[in-house]
Design brief:
The chain is an alpha/beta fold and about 170 residues long. Helices cover about 40% and strands about 15% of the residues.
């Protein structure tokens, strides 16, 4: 969402598709305009953080600071892989900004630094058993989506293993 036309298109598309939420990345100067659209359409917006190198929203906190006083239908899509890549604690971010967490993208990363890359869940540095316990304890009922960017030409085996890993953790809780 780099201009008003793109904002308008996103909300018109979401309305036509019957969606109740958009995951997006609006430029800072458009936030008040986006807030108006959220009110007009009654469609939530979840701002997605993109970690190191993202000048708009590197962290959930950077988005939260800009929307905390806006309409409560403006919230966050916390990408825990990008959160970990800026060496923040995904569990703590979910706790700290829980009132505005609408969507969570889960993925594992190889390092808690900028050079960390997506990997099969359970093979990286994110503590998924602990993270999922926090999500359950908080009573989170929003979207929890697997985001898997590794092996782009053949992602299915890694995605399947990642799903199996998460299902195994959930079976023990």
């Amino acid at each position: 969402m780099k201009n008003k036309k793109q904002v308008d298109q996103a909300f018109e598309y979401a309305k036509a598709a019957g969606m109740d939420m958009i995951v997006g990345v609006p430029n800072h100067e458009l936030l008040e305009y986006v807030e108006g659209k959220v009110k007009d359409y009654d469609i939530k917006l979840a701002i997605h953080n993109h970690g190191p190198g993202d000048k708009l929203y590197p962290s959930a906190e950077s988005a939260y600071k800009r929307i905390k006083d806006l309409d409560p239908r403006m919230g966050l899509c916390i990408d825990i892989g990008h959160t970990k890549r800026i060496n923040r604690d995904p569990e703590q971010d979910v706790k700290d900004f829980f009132d505005r967490v609408f969507d969570i993208h889960i993925k594992d990363v190889t390092k808690a630094e900028k050079t960390g890359s997506t990997c099969i869940m359970g093979r990286g540095v994110i503590d998924f058993p602990s993270f999922l316990k926090v999500i359950i304890k908080l009573g989170y009922n929003g979207t929890l989506a697997l985001e898997y960017e590794a092996e782009g030409k053949d992602p299915l085996p890694g995605m399947t293993e990642s799903f199996g890993y998460i299902k195994g953790i959930m079976a023990t809780m």
